[in-house]
Structure formats: structure tokens, C-alpha cells
Design goal:
Rossmann fold; lipid degradation; binds 2-acetamido-2-deoxy-beta-D-glucopyranose; hydrolase; disordered N terminus; alpha/beta; SGNH_plant_lipase-like; SGNH_hydro_sf; two-stranded antiparallel ribbon
Length: 371
């Protein structure tokens, strides 16, 4: 018994060590995917390790992050797999390497790259007080670096086909609220702009980056809406007498952004009809349904993080060696800012095969077979 246990522990330690030393992306290769590659631009909701290499307070490469994976902590801000990992699984696509890992470790980039960086936003200044982060602007430049690398392995004709058959996933904007507009002590944006003007500024900048990615050859875009940020433990724990209820004024700001993002999708689809597709992933609606009717989705706790400290475990986010809750699948929120793997699974499934109220105007399984 004793020696079996030792072998068992040694086996898992090896798996954990090798998984965190190498990049998870190499662990799984598949040719079933309808997309030649996937390219991910975003923040901590989709960062899979880029911030591990940066000097930043926004990091998740320590336990208990990754507690429900065989990988252990990888820099993913979750107890388990994240939205992009799960979407890759639904599609039969290999997991993506982080951009920084592709540069430092020479990982194969053929299946795509994840450029996302925790604390980053649409505006360059967003998240600055947390240290280094790769802004949306820099993420677009890093994509150009990847293209230059790909040019060494294929001719221009093949490259443009390859990019046209790739999926771009963009998840940006949360930090422009959480780590900018809503921090009036650190940022002047809320003094300079009312929420409507601010949403206009964000979308204008966002559109510029989307068009840059389009100019570089991407044709299939999944643009994620912002979730109900007024409901995350970080927000509901703020103020003098927090009740645990969602902050409606924050959700209203987010809705101004989301409405404009959906209009942008309509505008771009009309402009590039037949040659490109832009879809709006309605994370706000999906999360609101879960928060308003948790039991229907198998959840119990909606207004308290699984890992964290203070009111609603949302005042200080999950720290190294914190002891998280044990029933993680029943929590909507893993930490003060990020949903649990169980929620990301629902979001990924809805993105892959949801109806138009979840993802508009078509879902990812439809995008996969277009053009
Ligand atoms: C990367 O992987 C692809 C498919 O698995 C292969 O065709 C290609 O040669 C590899 N590229 C490099 C540079 O190793
Ligand atoms: C690129 O396209 C040519 C035809 O134009 C084809 O013969 C070749 O195999 C392709 N190369 C790669 C790396 O896909
Ligand atoms: C694209 O063009 C088709 C055919 O002309 C039309 O039916 C469809 O409504 C157009 N889609 C958009 C988003 O404009
Ligand atoms: C996608 O959704 C449709 C409609 O709800 C359902 O019939 C189908 O089985 C689903 N497909 C997958 C692969 O989940
Ligand atoms: C997702 O799109 C596919 C392909 O068009 C469709 O068959 C399926 O019904 C859609 N899923 C839902 C839930 O509407």
C-alpha cells in the first residue's frame, strides 16, 4: 500500500512538474478542428500565462489557481480550464500557447497563439497601477510578429487562406471599467467623461484594433461582450454597507459598452458581407441568467467568491496558498473577478452552439463552416 501510494504521488508530481515546465499547448494535438488556427486577444478572463513573464501584481501562477486541473497553476485565473481551453475542446482544436511562451520557448505556433494579458484593456493607461501588462495595442503588434514568423513557413497565398480560416477571439473592456473608470482615486476618466462618452471612446478605439486585425488578414471574429461587472465579488464588496446585491449602476455602464459592441458587429457584417463574419458573444446575458436562476444551472452561491478574503471573499482576491471553498462547481465566481470553470464551461458551450440570444448573429459551429 505504502509504496503504491508513493508511486502514485510521484506520478502526479511528475505530471504537474512537466506540465508547468512545458506549455500545456503541446500536450494535445488534433486535426479535427474546423479552424486552421485561433488567435486570442484579451485580459485575465482569457490570459493563459503571458503575465507569468511580466512584473505585475496581476498574476495567477500559484496555488490554489489551477487546483482542478492536472496542469496545476499555469497563470490561468481559474480553478480549472478557461473559456478558450474549453472552446478548443469543443472544436477539437489543440490548446493554444501563450505568446510570450512562443517567443521564449520556441513553441509551434501553427495552431494559433494567445496574446491576452491580465490587467490589460482597450486603453493603454488601463491597469497601469498593477504593473506591466500587454495592452490591446501591443497585442495587435505581437500578432504581427506571429505573422512574420508564419511567413517563414508558408507563401503569401497560403498565409492569407490560413488566416481567413482562423478564428479570432477578442475579450477586452472589463479592465477599462474595473481597473480604470471605476477607480476614480487613480484615474481621471470618470471626471473627464460621463459613462456614455466613455463607452463611445472605448468602442472607437476597439474598432480601430479590430480593423487592424482584419487588415492583417483575419476574417472570423468572436467579440465577447462584457459580463455583468456589477455582480462580481470585487464590486459587491465595495462601499460602506454592501448588501451582496449586484450594483445596477455598474451594470448600466457595461450595458452602454455592450450595446455599442453589438451595433459594431452589425455595422461590420454589413460592410464586409460575405467575406468576413463578426459575432457578438453575449456573456452578459448568459451570466445574468445564471445569477438570477443559479439552481437551474447547478449553482448554489452567486455573490461570494470561492477563494478570497473579506466581505463576500471579494475584497482581496485569491492569494498564494489560500484555502478555497471545496464545492467549487457550485460557485459562480472562483475569485473576486473571475468566474469558476463551471461557468466558463457554460459560456464555451453557448459560444460554440448557442442560439442568437447567447451569440449573435451566428454561433461558432456556424462560423466554422462559413466561406
Ligand atoms: C508545427 O506543427 C505543424 C503541424 O503539426 C507542422 O506541420 C509544422 O511543420 C510544425 N512547424 C514547425 C516549425 O515545427
Ligand atoms: C502552399 O500552396 C502551394 C500551392 O500554391 C502548395 O503546393 C503548397 O503545398 C502549400 N504549402 C504549404 C506549406 O501549405
Ligand atoms: C448579406 O447579404 C445577403 C445576400 O445579399 C443578405 O441576405 C444578408 O442580409 C446580408 N447580411 C448583412 C449582415 O447585411
Ligand atoms: C446544438 O444545438 C442544437 C439546438 O439546440 C442541438 O439540436 C444540437 O444537438 C447541438 N449540437 C451540439 C454539437 O451540441
Ligand atoms: C448553432 O448553429 C448551428 C449551425 O447553424 C445550428 O444548427 C444550431 O441550432 C445553433 N444552435 C442553437 C442552440 O441555436
Amino acid at each position: 500500500m505504502g509504496s503504491l501510494l508513493t508511486v502514485w504521488i510521484a506520478f502526479w508530481s511528475l505530471i504537474l512538474i512537466s506540465a508547468s515546465a512545458n506549455d500545456v499547448s503541446t500536450a494535445r494535438q488534433s486535426s479535427l478542428s474546423p479552424f486552421s488556427a485561433m488567435f486570442v486577444f484579451g485580459d485575465s478572463l482569457v490570459d493563459n500565462g503571458n503575465n507569468n513573464y511580466l512584473t505585475s501584481f496581476a498574476k495567477a501562477n500559484f496555488v490554489p489557481y489551477g487546483i482542478d486541473t492536472s496542469w496545476g497553476p499555469t497563470g490561468r485565473f481559474s480553478n480549472g480550464k478557461m473559456l478558450v481551453d474549453l472552446l478548443c475542446e469543443f472544436l477539437g482544436h489543440p490548446y493554444l500557447p501563450s505568446f510570450v511562451a512562443t517567443q521564449k520557448q520556441g513553441i509551434n505556433i501553427t495552431g494559433g497563439v494567445n496574446y491576452a494579458s491580465a490587467a490589460a484593456g482597450i486603453l493603454d493607461e488601463t491597469g497601469r497601477y498593477l504593473g506591466q501588462r500587454i495592452t490591446f495595442n501591443e497585442q495587435v503588434q505581437n500578432f504581427q510578429t506571429t505573422i512574420n514568423q508564419l511567413k517563414a513557413t508558408m507563401n503569401d497565398m497560403n498565409l492569407s487562406q490560413y488566416l481567413a480560416k482562423s478564428l479570432a477571439l477578442v475579450n477586452h473592456g472589463s479592465n477599462d471599467y474595473l481597473n480604470n473608470y471605476l477607480l476614480s482615486g487613480l484615474y481621471s476618466s470618470s471626471f473627464l467623461y460621463d459613462p456614455t462618452a466613455y463607452a463611445d471612446i472605448l468602442i472607437k478605439q476597439y474598432k480601430t484594433y479590430i480593423l487592424s486585425l482584419h487588415d492583417l488578414g483575419l476574417r472570423k471574429f468572436l467579440l465577447a461582450a462584457l459580463g455583468p461587472l456589477g455582480c462580481i465579488p470585487n464590486q459587491i464588496s465595495r462601499g460602506f454597507f454592501p448588501t451582496g446585491a449586484c450594483k445596477d449602476e455598474v451594470n448600466a455602464m457595461v450595458t452602454l459598452f455592450n450595446d455599442r459592441l453589438k451595433s459594431l458587429v452589425d455595422e461590420l457584417n454589413a460592410q464586409y458581407n460575405g467575406s468576413s463574419i463578426f459575432v457578438y458573444g453575449n456573456a452578459f446575458a448568459v451570466l445574468m441568467q445564471i445569477i438570477q436562476d443559479p439552481i437551474a444551472y447547478g449553482f448554489v452561491t452567486t455573490n461570494r467568491a470561492c477563494c478570497g478574503i473579506g466581505r463576500f471573499r471579494g475584497m482581496i482576491s485569491c492569494l498564494p496558498y489560500s484555502i478555497p471553498c471545496s464545492n467549487r462547481d457550485q460557485y459562480v465566481f472562483w475569485d473576486a473577478f473571475h468566474p469558476s470553470e463551471a461557468v466558463d464551461k457554460i459560456l464555451a458551450l453557448k459560444a460554440f452552439n448557442g442560439s442568437t440570444s447567447d451569440i449573435y448573429p451566428v454561433n461558432v459551429s456556424q462560423i466554422a463552416i462559413m466561406f
